[in-house]
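User: Quick sanity check before I run a bigger batch. Here is a single chain. Can you write out its predicted 3D structure?
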Amino acid sequence: MLAGQGQPSGQHGAHEREQPHDDDALPLPAHPLILPCSGPFPRQARIGTDPWRVRVAQLLILTSADNSDVLPALALLSHGTHVIPAQPDRLVTAPDADLLLVDARSDLMAAKLLCQILRSTGSTVPLLLVLTEGGLAAVSPDWGVDDVILETAGPAEVDARIRLAAGRVPRPEESATIRAAGVIIDEDSYSAKVHGRPLDLTYKEFELLRFLTAHPSRVFTREQLLSEVWGYDYFGGTRTVDVHVRRLRAKLGDQESLIGTVRNVGYRFNVQEQDGARGIHPVRA
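Assistant: Done. Predicted structure follows.
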C-alpha cells in the first residue's frame, strides 16, 4: 500500500544531488522510443489511463518528401515520430502509432487517396493532415481526416491538436490491475507487489512504477517521465526523477534491475529475458 498517499514525495535539497544508479546501464537501442510493429496495421498504443492525459504520443508520418521535416514544430515537442513513405503497402511493417500524420503539402490528390485508403481499413487511429495554407480549401469531409495542421503551426498548437485527437478515441474498459515481470499493480487500491511481496510506496513512487510497468521495454527520457508522472504543473527539475528511481530500486530489493537505465537517455522497465522469449507482455487482469 502507499506510504503518505496524496502527499508530494519529492525531497529537495542534498538528497536530490545524488547521482542516479547506473550500475545496470543498458546500451542505447537503435530506436529507443519506437515500439516494434505487433500487427498488420498501426494500432493505438495508449499512454496512461486517462485519454485527456496523453502527453507523449507516438506519431507515424507518411510523406513523399525527401526530408523528414514535415512539421518543424515537432522538433520542439516530446512526442515520438517515425517517418515512412506515403505508400499504403508500407503500413504492413510500420510501427504502432497513436496518430497518423499524412503529408499533403505537395500532392493533394495523392494525399486524399491515401487518407481514403487508410479509412477503408476500419482503423480508429486518429488521422491528421499536414497542409500548406493554400491547400485548406481543397479539404472536405470525404477525405476522412480527423483534423488538419498547417505546416507553419507552432509547438503549442501542434501539441494541443495531437492531444485532443488522441483523447477523442474511444477505449475499451480496462481492468485496474497491471501484471508484468512479477510486478502486480492494483490501481484501485493503490498497492503494488513484486513476486508476492507488498511494496511500501509513496504516491509518486507508485505512479512512476505504474507508468513504467504499463510500458515495458519502452525507453522514456527524464523529461517525458516528469511530464507523464508529475504533470505539466510541476516546476521542479528532472533530478527528482533520478531520486524517485533510486528509491524505487531500493524498495524493489533484489528485483531492482527491473528498472533499467539507458545511459544518456533515461529509464525503462525491463522484461526478463525468459519472459520476453515466451512473449509475455503486461496484462490487465
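The two ends are 19 Å apart (CA to CA).

User: Great, the batch can go ahead then.
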